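COMPLEX REQUEST
Ligand: zinc ion
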Amino acid sequence: MTARGSLALDELRRQLEEIWRHLLQNPIPARVGCDLDEVDAALARLAAATFGMCERCGRPILLARLRVIPTLRVCLACEAEATHC
Ligand SMILES: [Zn+2]
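STATUS: Structure written out below.
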């Protein structure tokens, strides 16, 4: 893990914690992937160092996408595949 990479993870962790606090006060998901279970799961993945890896193919998920939706579990290719099913 590069210094730059862990910096991005810190930023995403803060973002997730912020969403989590927001959800405790206002349990209605404000946007995609923001329910408490998803945020919890994403924080668990951060702790286990599997955060940012696609759950289906194991490839890294683009940081730009994680910044928009930090609770993402799969990469773009797998997501596209899933929606076609
Ligand atoms: Zn994938």
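REMARKS: The chain has a mean pLDDT of 86. The chain is about 60% helix and 0% strand.
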